Amino acid sequence: MLRGIDVVCHQAAMVGHGVDPRDAPAYAEHNDLATACLLAAMYDGGVRRLVLASSMVIYGEGAYSCPGHGPIRPGPRSPDDLAVGCYEPLCPHCRQALVPGLVAEDAPADPRSTYAASKLAQEHYAAAWARQAGGCVWALRYHNVYGPRMPRDTPYAGVAALFRSALERRESPRVLEDGEQRRDFVHVRDVAHANALAVEAEPPGAFEAVNVCSGEPHTIGELAETLAAAGSSGVRPRIVGGARPGDVRHVVADPAKAKAALGFVAATSFAEGVRAFATDPLR
Known about the structure:
This protein has about 280 residues and is α/β, with parallel strands linked by helices.
């Protein structure tokens, strides 16, 4: 079935944070079993190159440091802290708020959701396949992708689609925590360009992971405000506090490796892309 194919670009996955742990079998089936079956078919067909759509969710929290104690990998935030509006990860030694930095590809994996665990498992299957089959893999760790034809009105969509769906219903987008969570929003056109570069480029090793990001960190609240201002619904976002189990505070990407290894630099600015997304079609 795959004979004569030079490279497989694997984009299929069940996405989103998930609703609750009962989603785990579906994530395992769609993301992990399906990936394992694809890799077996690639081996049978003699295909030795894979471009895998991975995700920044495998990092869990991003990179942090404490002014007094240096680099820190924070654990999950405590329910007691979240309940009183203390959203920043704290240093385990002095309880001071940690300072977010840029997360690079060599950061330890620390998945905080079922989806994140399934994406890390995809990477592990792909890396094992590369070693056993003599193949090579680009694992493209997408950051927060947005753009036309995102799904509407589903809890499994990304935050950009959730906000857009609410605005189309003339409802206020609900922004969790205080809206100051930092992310790297990357337009789908840039993601497509990164894939095209990876299809043409031979990875330097059997398995190479790269951040696919804009290099422009922005807050969740800023995304909601910019979308609302650019649309025609007339409603404004609403800060509602709280946090979902497994939510992380800041994931800010280091784009250096993607530029050096693939020549990838995102071309769509946050302002340009989000203004367009305010009226882009959803599906």
